[in-house]
């Protein structure tokens, strides 16, 4: 049976057959208990009846002579008439019959000092033999016989009834168990059908959740929640691919245009050739940077962001990055406010990239001769923060929730730089901060500048060094 259950593919059949088997075992045990209880009860009554009759006869003994007259014959007849199924046989010391009830005529009765059951034709009886050796003038035996045919037939009939009841109960349990299980597992069937019908282009379907708050309802809610996450993930992926394609289309179109220009005029005109080569080089660098950023984000999404960690001074790292930007951007005033000295254990190159993203973004949107402030400070013994604040045009409240989305640019017209970004910088920054279990936030309003705040935890290595 277990091999059959294992081979069945439907869980409803597995549960039904297992349930039916357990129900049959329960019925078997209950029926067995009922049978043994009644059987013992009836056997005890039979023994008690025989023993009580023997005590009554012995207490009414009236003579001590010949075994035939040893007992009161009227008493024995009266007991047989009143009990209807109690009979007597008197034997002499040699075991020969001296007197007996007519019911026992021609009946072969075993000679046993204990109560013993025997058959005589269709009758079933129980007998007990009493030796009369305690009397001085008489030696002999008294056999008390009880007809137990009715009781034994009742037990035989009871076995048949219990067996039939068990079989019928098992069949009913199979049918009821199947339909009950099928109804109870209907949410799982709905989940299966919904999952089969769902495709990447149709993730909006959901299960209808109703009924009691049981495990199946929780499963349906969990399935719907999973579909929500999948739908959001597919939408992000679709948007990501669409945006990436859009971002790559422009440099590819520029390169193709200059290649066509080279093909037509570059062979004859040196200035055209040089212009085309410079433009192609520039667009190639932009494409290379874009692909590296996309690869970094993809690795971060797959939790495969490689880190080469070491202890470094965060203040010195900020000063190093500021020095780099001061050489390239002399029109902007960079100020560093050091509230605390921070030694941090992490990947220095990743945090260089993080700081460059914030400074590059701040410089793009800062006015001529504007001011950018970088600040670092401990929050408590477990955390510190650094912030980058510019005095640019700021970000509107409608755009703030989306500034860390990939390829998102709040206002493409407000930058004073000709070379606009790809819209991946802040998404990469968030990926780096999240990878270190930190928090990143932005404070801004239109016309009032922007402030990016990064909170990072100091791990055990940080605290030990500090």
Summarize the structure.
With 466 residues, this protein is α+β, with helices and mostly antiparallel strands. It has helices spanning 2-7, 11-59, 67-70, 73-83, 149-184, 186-197, 215-266, 270-301, 314-328, 348-364, 425-435, 460-465, and strands at residues 86-92, 97-100, 116-120, 123-131, 140-147, 309-313, 333-338, 343-347, 371-378, 383-390, 439-444, 450-457.
Give the CATH class of the largest domain.
Alpha Beta
The number of strands is 12
Number of self-contained structural domains: 3
The CATH architecture term of the largest domain is 2-Layer Sandwich
Low-confidence stretches: 62-70, 412-419
Return Rg in Å.
Answer: 50 Å
Determine the N-to-C terminus distance. 68 Å
Question: What letter string, H or E per element, gives the SSE order?
Answer: HHHHEEEEEHHHHEHEEHEEHEEH
Shape: rod-shaped
Main β-sheet, in a few words? 5 strands, antiparallel
What count of helical segments does DSSP give? 12
How would you sum up this structure, described in words?
The protein has 466 residues and is an alpha+beta fold. The protein has three domains: 2-174, Beta-Lactamase, CATH 3.30.450; 215-301, Helix Hairpins (Orthogonal Bundle); 309-465, Heat Shock Protein 90, CATH 3.30.565. Helices cover 54% and strands 17% of the residues. It is built from twelve helices and twelve strands. The protein has helices at 2-7, 11-59, 67-70, 73-83, 149-184, 186-197, 215-266, 270-301, 314-328, 348-364, 425-435, 460-465; strands spanning 86-92, 97-100, 116-120, 123-131, 140-147, 309-313, 333-338, 343-347, 371-378, 383-390, 439-444, 450-457. The strands form three sheets. A five-stranded antiparallel β-sheet has the order 2-1-5-4-3, covered by helices on one side. A hairpin with a 2-residue loop joins strand 3 and strand 4. Helix 2 runs antiparallel to helix 5 (149-184). Residues 62-70 and 412-419 have low confidence and may be disordered. Keywords: ATP-binding, Cell membrane, Kinase, Membrane, Nucleotide-binding, Phosphoprotein, Transferase, Transmembrane, Transmembrane helix, Two-component regulatory system. It catalyses: ATP + protein L-histidine = ADP + protein N-phospho-L-histidine. This is histidine kinase.
């Amino acid at each position: 049976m277990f091999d059959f259950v294992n081979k069945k593919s439907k869980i409803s059949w597995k549960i039904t057959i297992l349930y039916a088997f357990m129900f049959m075992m329960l019925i078997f045990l209950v029926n067995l208990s009922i049978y043994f209880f009644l059987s013992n009860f009836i056997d005890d009554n039979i023994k008690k009846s025989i023993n009580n009759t023997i005590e009554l006869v012995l207490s009414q003994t009236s003579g001590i002579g010949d075994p035939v007259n040893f007992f009161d014959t009227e008493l024995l007849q009266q007991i047989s008439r009143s009990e209807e199924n109690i009979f007597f046989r008197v034997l002499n010391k040699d075991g020969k019959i001296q007197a007996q009830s007519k019911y026992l005529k021609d009946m072969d009765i075993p000679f046993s000092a204990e109560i013993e059951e025997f058959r005589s034709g269709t009758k079933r009886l129980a007998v007990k033999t009493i030796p009369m050796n305690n009397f001085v003038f008489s030696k002999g035996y008294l056999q008390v016989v009880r007809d137990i045919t009715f009781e034994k037939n009742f037990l035989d009939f009871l076995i048949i009834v219990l067996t039939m009841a068990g079989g019928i109960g098992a069949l009913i349990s199979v049918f009821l168990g199947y339909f009950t299980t099928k109804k109870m597992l209907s949410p799982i069937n709905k989940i299966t059908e919904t999952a089969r019908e769902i495709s990447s282009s149709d993730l909006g379907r959901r299960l209808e959740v109703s009924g009691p708050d049981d495990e199946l309802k929780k499963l349906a809610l969990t399935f719907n929640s999973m579909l929500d996450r999948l739908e959001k993930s597919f939408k992000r992926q679709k948007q990501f691919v669409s945006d990436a394609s859009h971002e790559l289309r422009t440099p590819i179109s520029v390169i193709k245009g200059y290649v066509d220009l080279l093909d037509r005029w570059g062979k004859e005109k040196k200035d055209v050739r040089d212009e085309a080569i410079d433009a192609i080089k520039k667009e190639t660098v932009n494409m290379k940077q874009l692909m590296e950023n996309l690869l970094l984000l993809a690795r971060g999404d797959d939790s495969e962001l490689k880190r080469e960690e070491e202890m470094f001074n965060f203040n010195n790292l900020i000063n190093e990055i500021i020095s780099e930007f001061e050489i390239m951007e002399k029109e902007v005033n960079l100020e560093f406010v050091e509230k605390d000295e921070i030694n941090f254990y992490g990947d220095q190159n990743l945090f260089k990239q993080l700081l460059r993203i914030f400074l590059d973004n701040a410089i793009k949107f800062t006015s001529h001769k504007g001011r950018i402030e970088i600040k670092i400070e401990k929050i408590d013994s477990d955390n510190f923060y650094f912030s980058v604040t510019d005095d640019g045009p700021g970000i509107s409240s409608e755009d703030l929730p989306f500034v860390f989305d990939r390829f998102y640019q709040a206002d493409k017209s407000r930058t004073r730089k000709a070379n606009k970004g790809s819209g991946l910088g802040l998404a990469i920054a968030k990926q780096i901060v999240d990878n270190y279990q930190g928090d990143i936030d932005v404070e801004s309003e239109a016309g009032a500048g922007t402030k990016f705040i990064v909170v990072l935890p100091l791990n055990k290595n940080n605290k030990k060094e500090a």
